[in-house]
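Protocol step 4 of 6: structure prediction from sequence.
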Amino acid sequence: MSDKLAYIQRVETQISEVKATLNQLKADRDRILEQAQHEEIEQLEQHLDDAQLKLTDIANAADEAWHEITHAIDEAIKSLQARVQQLLNR
């Protein structure tokens, strides 16, 4: 086997190994991002449930007391909307 052919085969092998490593890294990255996104979605669902409970509190609150709760709910909804938009933009 000539030196040239041996060199070409060695470099082809190295390229194949690097490609395999990169493909594995991509798969790991995608899995990690997907897992993080699922965790964030679960957190958002919990915050959404909390907002729903607060809304129920407003519905059940006396006419004078419901104003005290609205600011917290408005801020929670804005935060949820911003986090959902961040997820969509990824």
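Step 5 (inspection) to follow. Residues 3-89 form one domain.
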